[in-house]
Specification:
By secondary structure, this protein is of the alpha+beta class. It has a single domain, classed as Gcn5-related N-acetyltransferase (GNAT) (Aminopeptidase, 3-Layer(aba) Sandwich), CATH 3.40.630. It is 37% helix and 21% strand. The protein has four helices and five strands; from the N terminus they run E-H-H-E-E-E-H-E-H. The chain has a five-stranded mixed sheet with strand order 1-2-3-4-5. The model has no long low-confidence stretch (mean pLDDT 94).
């Protein structure tokens, strides 16, 4: 149904823009940042983590495309590899391709490629309010290993 292919240098700027837009929205919704601050933090995150773009060591950037095709790109996977473990830093299926089995197929292909690389565990984070993503991950065999929690100190008065 899908294949994952290495992201090309010319595709990275479009992915970077999409990541910044989506991560900024997530930060604003889940962490309470204002739009400008959320966008700055999202930009710092991707630029700091992927300083060499698609060639950044220990990172794999894949485009999700329909099987047998090179285009259209229907989503992206950003994987960070350390030893025999991988972390899904970002998984994005474009909205018009969601709910049709492509997400599940992409995660299955990811598993196959990571296993072929000698990876024996993969983890990820899902936002608390993203029920559809959580359901997809659970259907694909992911299970909860902990909870991220935070609280704001912005209103704390320090003497």
């Amino acid at each position: 149904m899908v294949k994952l292919r290495d992201m090309r240098d010319v595709e990275f700027p479009a992915y970077r823009r999409l990541f910044i837009d989506e991560y900024a929205q997530d930060l604003a919704a889940t962490r309470g940042y204002g739009a400008e601050d959320a966008r700055a933090r999202a930009t710092e995150s991707i630029d700091g983590s992927l300083s060499a773009g698609v060639r950044t060591a220990a990172n794999r950037l894949w485009c999700i495309v329909p099987a047998g095709e090179e285009q259209p790109v229907i989503g992206y996977l950003w994987i960070v590899v350390k030893d025999q473990a991988a972390w899904v830093a970002d998984f994005c299926l474009l909205p018009e391709w969601r709910g049709r089995g492509f997400g599940r197929a992409a995660l299955g292909e990811m598993d196959r490629l990571l296993a072929a690389m000698g990876i024996n565990e993969v983890g990820l984070r899902v936002a608390a309010g993203n029920g559809s993503a959580k359901a997809l991950y659970e259907k694909c065999g992911f299970h909860i290993t902990g909870f991220n929690m935070s609280r704001s100190l912005a209103t704390l008065k320090v003497d």
